[in-house]
Amino acid sequence: MKLSREQWFYIILAGLAGALIVFAPLPVRVAPPSQRTFRVEASQFAYSPAVLTVNPGDTVTIELVSTDVVHGLYVDGYGASVTADPGQTVSLTFIANEPGSFRFRCNVTCGALHPFMIGKLQVGTNTLLWRAVGLALLAAFSGVALFPRPATVKAV
Amino acid sequence: MKRSEILSRLLVIAGVLLVLSVPLAVHFYEGQGIVEIHGRMAESGGWSPNSIHAQVGVPLHLRLTSDDVMHGFAIGQSDMPVVDVAPGKMTEVTITFNKPGTYTYYCTRWCGPNHWRMRGTIEVSGGSSDAPQPVSPPLYMTLNLNIDAPHPAIATPTERPSALRGAAFAAMLSSSYLTNDYYRAHSPSQAYLDLRADPALSSLSNPNVWDLVAYIWQSNTTPEGRAEGQRLFARNCSACHGESGGGDGVFSASVNAQTGKFPANFTDPASLLGASPALLQGKILRGGMGTGMPYWGPIFENETIWSIIGYIYTFQFDEVQK
Amino acid sequence: MRSELTRFSVVKSLLKNRWPQLFGFIVMLAGFLYAIMTGFIGTPVGNNNFSTVFVWIAWWAILILVAVPFFGRGWCAVCPIPLPGEWIQRGAILEPPSRKPRRFNLRWPNKLRNIWLQNLTFTLVALFSTVILTTPKVTAVVLAAMLFLAVGMSIVFERRTFCRYLCPVSGFIGLYAQTAPVELRVKDKQVCITCKGKPCYNGSAAGYGCPWDVFPGGLTKNTYCGLCMECLRTCPNDNIAINLRPFAADLGQPSRKLDEAFKAFIMLGAAMVYAGVLLGPWGELKSAAYSVGTVAWFGYVMAFLAFIFGLLPALFWLAVKLGQVLSKSNVPARHVFAAFATALVPLGLMFWVAFSLSFVLTNASYIFIAFSDPFGWGWNLFGTAALTWQPYLTTALVPLQTLVLVGGLLWSVRTAQKVGREVKIQPVPVIVFSMLVTLVMLGLLL
């Protein structure tokens, strides 16, 4: 496939736009770090609340309360973990200095769906998601722009 | 048939047989002389098997595994260490019994509201020819207490009694109040009335008499005993009675759904201050009362139960030292 | 832009010779039966039993992350499920025997010569998937059922009807095999046209007629070629080649088949449903999907089916229709619809890759544990039984998934444009559809 000059131009433009989407510093809402405490109830096979939202730099304390069998909580990316028996609340404290969206998962086998017992820790804005959305939009638009539309091309 | 075809068929059969038979053979060989116990939540059958036999002096080899969630294994009234029984893992334990009798093994990690029903028995026979030690009946029976009856406190304090403040008036206290027998047989509110009626203490205010009651209760326990009690309470009681004793543990709702009653609230002075240690001992030993309370008789030694009771009263009384 | 691998005599003789293949088969068959055995008699705890861990983590990872994208139907070439039946059907394990065994050898009914049945079996498995993939016994039952079905169908029907028309896995492997950079094709079509007897299809003393019921001379897509190498053995003219080729070479010729189009919807939709239900934070959805037979489960089934067979195709239809209107085309809508669904093939594959990356990386440590202690009997075959569960590469996961999904979208856009050029219809609405579902998937996974 031979690319026309116009197409090369689009490819370079799309590449630059892609790099911009991936690396551009985004405006960050600066909130002073604070202490955040969540009481998270764990039961087969869900956390409640399942989505925790904090600001970057917050000191996060998760009080894990198991309400049926022994459960645990492991935070992806942070590697912090804790396990709690019913009747014995256990706290996990860490500083959420890494922004982004992190899954937390049960780390004590607690029944059939144990591997899917998942919650979400949202630290600040999920910039990666927005960058990915930007890339997807760019992919769709540049794909359309890069390659000729059917009206302008002869049938194969 | 061609030789290559015969060879290939043999290879297929050999490969399949090898893979299927070797594990079975190894498993059969490994299982000799070992009892394998599977743990499941009580709703799905509890321990399997739930009764085994052993001989005095003959080591009993157990292989323990869980088929669903995290369980634990311990034998009541024995000093065998508690082990975890993890899903899909094998825990091997060897126990030798010195005395014949019926032992209870039980789950040690909460695995649902019916966790405590996950129990089994080991029948240990043979061995000693000594006559069995005479067992004295528990105090609540000697005192003829009705542990199923309500036990409202006859009096309650207006502020939280403190053993530390009480210690200041300890010198005024007749030593008969400080005995173990007095402590175990009386509820705090009964003790309050006894002290209030004592002319030697007539100069004390009501709260200070309550402080003396707290002092009596504390002087019959030790910091170590209360710490042990606290540990056991967290492991065995707080799932229903609540971590701060409020009767609001994670299973309180399901206890209520099953029995129509809530687990006892130890932070309620009107209830706990009307209960003597002997009464609490009865409730712990025998359980029941139509409240879904487990029976711990075959599991805890007497001293252990007194430690738990000593801790339970700290939901009402401030201690000298934590 | 093709490079023939079979021009190297080592490669060719390795593929032609029956022994290397047989050794592969023995290993696979033994492993498969072992998985069935561990499922039946091992621990009922899914994440510690070889059957569930091996099939749904190890095999699935290899299949969706490696085998399908890089080798197409490479898995089918070594799959043990049809082997026992095929050996009974052929009366031999190696070369064709001098005397053919008497079997029914019925022809597969014409009405079922499509992948609708496979769409059905995959959907069925998908509806029970939370139970199947977490319960060793159920996994073992499913594996054993597939084995028995394959044997039975081999005895009753000719060739590999199980693989071709029933296997729930085969359908999507075939669909996605079109994207693989490997293909089996004839070198010169003219040779096939003049070839007498067509031994590649009808069999000869050197080998069996195509088990997949395909005439190699007419192969233009990977979809239904199982890479079993029989035609390489039977071709009297040395006209069969295994080629390396660019990715997605088959997608230039859009499919006109509605069954394949719906396969694309089923796969795309299932990947999205799983990303939400299994990897999302919504506990009620998980319980509903797991509690087979309850009202909640029926709700889940209805929603699942409505999404896959209703919402997705309907939206897609609207997109295609819009393109048609924009281009003022009067091509039959049914053809255009199926043709444009080709654009969902690379997208669906990448959806599955993105979903599986998360599932596999977080659970891969179970593989080491279960390989050392396959039954949960306390064994430690490779010294890894005592490892604790640990997710791998959690920080690389999101960038990887983004790359995969955006790459899939780009690939889908390209495919849609090729299809658009082919059928002379504006592909932009279809591209917008692809973009929207990609955004949903990003939202679910990231």
Word description of this protein:
The complex is a heterotrimer of chains A (156), B (322) and C (446). By secondary structure, chain A is α+β, with helices and mostly antiparallel strands. Chain A has 2 domains: 5-26 and 131-152, no CATH class; 35-124, Immunoglobulin-like. Helix content of chain A is 25%, strand content 33%. Chain A has helices spanning 5-23, 127-146, and strands at residues 35-43, 46-48, 51-54, 59-66, 71-75, 81-84, 90-95, 100-105, 118-123. In chain A, strands 3-9-8-5-6 form a 5-stranded mixed sheet, with no helix packed on it. A 4-stranded mixed sheet of chain A has the order 2-1-4-7, with no helix packed on it. In chain A, strand 1 (35-43) and strand 2 form a beta hairpin. The longest helix of chain A has 20 residues, at 127-146. The radius of gyration of chain A is 23 Å and the shape is elongated. In chain A, 42% of the residues are buried. By secondary structure, chain B is α+β, with helices and mostly antiparallel strands. Chain B has 2 domains: 35-125, Cupredoxins -  blue copper proteins (Immunoglobulin-like), CATH 2.60.40.420; 139-315, no CATH class. Chain B has 12 helices and 9 strands. Chain B has helices at 3-30, 139-142, 163-167, 180-185, 188-197, 206-219, 223-236, 238-241, 252-259, 269-272, 277-286, 302-312, and strands at 35-39, 47-48, 51-55, 60-66, 71-75, 83-85, 91-95, 101-106, 119-125. In chain B, helix 5 (188-197) crosses helix 6 and helix 7 (223-236) crosses helix 12. Chain C is mainly α and 446 residues long. Chain C has 2 domains: 3-177 and 182-244, no CATH class; 253-445, no CATH class. In chain C, helix 6 (116-127) packs parallel to helix 14 (258-277), helix 14 (258-277) crosses helix 17 and helix 20 (394-423) runs antiparallel to helix 21 (428-445). The radius of gyration of chain C is 22 Å and the shape is globular. Chain C starts with a strand and ends with a helix. Chains A and C meet through strand 2, strand 8, strand 9 and helix 2 of A and helix 15, helix 20 and helix 21 of C.
